[in-house]
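Support case: 5'-O-[(L-methionyl)-sulphamoyl]adenosine complex. Customer-provided input:
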Amino acid sequence: MEDGSGAKTMTSRYEEKRMKIMKKGGTTGLLVLLFMIFFWKRGENMEKKYSIFTAIAYTSAKPHIGNTYEIVLADAIARFKRFQGFQVYFQTGTDEHGEKIALNASNIGITPQEYCDNISQEIKNIWDLMNTSYDKFVRTTDKRHEEIVGRIFQKLYEQGDIYLSKYEGLYCIPCESFFTESQLVDGKCPDCGREVVIKSEDAYFFKMSKYQKKLEDYIESHPDFIEPESRKNEIINNFIRPGLFDLCVSRTSFDWGVKVPMNEKHVVYVWLDALTNYITNVGYDVAAPSNEFYQIWPADLHVVGKDIIRFHMIYWPIFLMALDLPLPKKIYGHPWLLMNNDKMSKSKGNVLYADDLVKQYGVDAIRYYLLHEIPYNHDGNITLSLIEERINSDLANVLGNLVNRTITMGQKYFQGHIQNPNQIEEIDHLFLAKINDLDQQVILHMDKLEIGNAIDDIFDLLRASNKYIDETMPWILAKNEEKQDRLETVLYHLLESIRVSAIYLSPFLPETGQKMLCQLNQKNDSRSFESTLKYELNQPEILFQRIDLSKDR
Ligand code: MSP
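Agent response - structure generated as follows:
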């Protein structure tokens, strides 16, 4: 198993078993087959599976809007995959062990478990408030998870990947990580910038160096494994090539964690405990993984912040290699959300929380801001005035205004009854083509995880619709008896543009998409221009209230 070829055999054995299980599930009868052919014919991917996992948030404190960004981002991807016909499994949860959490609990006189129960529930409430559609919310204090972590540790020890030794080094208490001198930045923790202390303890170590070459080869030969490209270079050049040190995977200085089975003075290092959440909660066990496991693993996508890529792009793949399991297909190290171009921190007093923002602006306004304003590869910025500018310019002016104007005109000129008289003019061709191009554009960007650009594609169509109103001037057509068919055609085109936009907006802004469709009172779910629908419009309602920017806050 130590050499590459041995592990390769195990991985292909995993693949064989997986194929067998997937096949069984896929051939339970003629009905399923017919169903699949039906969707295949519609060009959808109903039979395909997609699994997506966020990092699990620490239960040390209430999560701020930066942590919340990650679950919203993953939710948009998960919803879009479902929209494309994939059968999605979407997992998130909380990371609950460690010294810092035990300390926080003792500071307020409650047990670590009580502390974690409270914060984990608070995190779940925020994820729910943000309308995120996760399938499973996991906790590392879950008994089953703890038992499997113990068995994983034991297995790795018995096969010689983990050994007992002594550790003396530079330690960052908040990050619960040891560092070498050369890893420090200005003598401080490279992850959080705080002071490190010298610490010595008996400890178990994981033989990282044994897998160094194999990991480097894997990354080089799987160009889709790490995104963005810049993170891949960072991982290879800054961490792997300089040489991987064996990793300390146990602690004796505190006891809020999973006990090491063969030596209960030690608890398992939080990152070994936390990372394995991805498999312990989908049916993995050392003796025999369940059928569910083969359906979900390997993960299609891990969505994690740029600060924890070292753990996900080095330690996690190596742990999986040691367990003879396939690696996730892709790990996306997303950028961060900064508050006024600065890192959010309680001590600086510049932290924003999702629940406060939602109370003030509504869920979809905040989802829009997070999904649209943080580029794929660069940190994004947030302030209250930036949120308000976006609400006014994009959500109220471009989107809200278009829907309101169109439905109001539909009611005013045709009492809400609109069909397509097909009085086409030259100007229409480009507009109708734009409606039909939306699918291709959005998919192109979503496939590259460029969520902000995918949303821009939809808003481009909304902007083009506003321009179409300005150019066709329905209020002038309305004055001319002979132009009634042309007027109805123009309104019909606009309604179709709004309908298709609403359908594409739904994975990103689910409530808004729904409200738009409700105002249109149209059930047809075709994703391109339809020429023969009958519209019986509802009354217009304001989607996003404009914010008066001149008012003092
Ligand atoms: N518990 C670990 C993850 C373990 S995964 C096996 C952890 N927790 S965390 O609560 O600190 O962070 C959760 C996620 O939020 C991480 O992916 C982190 O990068 C992300 N973010 C934390 N601050 C952030 C911003 N300001 N902006 C965007 N994402 C941010 O790390």
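DSSP finds 20 helices and 17 strands in the chain.

Case will auto-close in a few days if no follow-up is received.
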